[in-house]
Amino acid sequence: MRPPTASGAAAGAAAPASGLQGVITSPRRKLAVIDGAVVPLGAPVRDATLSGVSDSLVVLQKDGERDVLLMHPNIDKKPARPAPAK
Prior knowledge:
Layout: E1 20-25, E2 30-34, E3 37-40, E4 44-45, E5 48-53, E6 57-62, E7 65-70
Antiparallel strand pairs: 1-2, 2-3, 4-5, 5-6, 6-7
């Protein structure tokens, strides 16, 4: 996987605002792709430590503060509406 700023990136393609490009989870390990680098849970990234990984977000911890990176930061999730009665 190439970082969005690397040569060969599609013209006009924007990087996610958060830098989170993907997550990989299994019962044994959790990884995140941040700024084009694969980062395991507990490893340093962006002068912080990757302290949490879920399906659509990661948590970075630094000096007691948390920074949450969202997979799709521009999408607002809303509960599904019930189907109309037939």
